[in-house]
Predict the 3D structure of the following.
Amino acid sequence: MPKAPRLTPADAERLLLDAGFTLLRTRGSHRVYGKGTQRCVVPFHAGKDLHPKLVKQILQAVEHE
């Protein structure tokens, strides 16, 4: 299996919004996006990339549409 790309929170947000997800709510530095019954939480921490497991979950949610 190929390695997941490194994503910043802004890149992940762009992918989710382009796939039809909408911003449901924000709590602190975490933003929750949803589409139908799917939900994705993206932590927005300055200067940090997302964890590979979280990147994998986001990519699966985007491909699932």
